[in-house]
Structures are given as structure tokens and as C-alpha cells.
TrEMBL record:
Domain Polynucleotide kinase PNKP phosphatase: 14-145
Pfam family, one: HAD_PNKP
Protein known as: Polynucleotide kinase PNKP phosphatase domain-containing protein
Record organism: Streptomyces sp. R35
Domain of life per record: Bacteria
InterPro entries attached to this UniProt entry: HAD-like_sf, HAD_PNKP, HAD_sf
Amino acid sequence: MVGVKEKISRPLAVFDLDGTLADTAHRQRFLESKPRDWDAFFAAAAQDPPLAEGIALARQSAQDCEVVYLTGRPERCRRDTEDWLAAQGLPDGRIWMRRNDDRRPARRTKLEILRRLARNREIRVLVDDDELVCEDAERAGFRVVRARWAAASAALRDAQEREGRT
């Protein structure tokens, strides 16, 4: 059994979900329509196939780090997200989600949470597919692994940056 002190002192490995651990390609169509169908986009997340590279990296990271999840998904998706992570056999870890009414760009919300986490813990790595999040995190001094194993989506990138939805 891991002692409390040992668990607290372990560094954090911070993983994004969409495009990093979860393949969102099947639900991109909901972002390509006008208006965008956000309810359908997030409802379909429960059926996301796992991205093997991200899943393997999260499992490997759990050997030396406490794994936590940092997503732009809104809080209303928490139950589906917890169920999806468990179904993939991913390490247990806290899930940091966007408030339902928070429409700030992902790079702002995620960097804010990273800085908050770094006050009390070493962050060993952030793994994310959003280039703007990665660039801002690197500028702030965080070690970043860019998740480039999923097909990029212009609609999702626009949603992350301009609409603050994921």
C-alpha cells in the first residue's frame, strides 16, 4: 500500500482527453454543422474509441507519477468521462473539467489549472494535442508531450480556441 506521504510527493502526469486519449473523429460532424450541436458532440463522447498511443503513455506514466486528467469538457460530462476512463483501464486520477459556463479558450483555462497544481506538486509532464495549449504551457516552463497521434480537426481547434467549448 502506498503511504499518504509517498502519494502526495509523487509528481503529476497531466493528460488531456479529446485527441490525446480519446479519438473524437466520429463526433466531429457535430462541430461542422451550423449551428454547432454541442449537446450531441459531448453526448457522443461516451463512444469515443481509445487512442492506443495516449493510453499506453498514461499507463506507463502511472508507474512513476500520479496521473490526473485536464480536459476542456464541461462539468456536465463528468459521469460519462469517469465511465469512459474506467472502461479503458486508465489509472485512477482526479479529473479537472471546465465549468459549464466557462467559455474561455482552452489554453487559458488549462494553463490556469496547471499553475494551480504546480504550487503544491511537481508536474512532470503535460500531454495534450492542442498546439496553443502546448505552446503556452512550454512558455510557462512546463514539460510538454504533443499528442500528434490523432487526426487534427480544424472544427475542434476552432472550438477550443474561439468558442471555449472543449
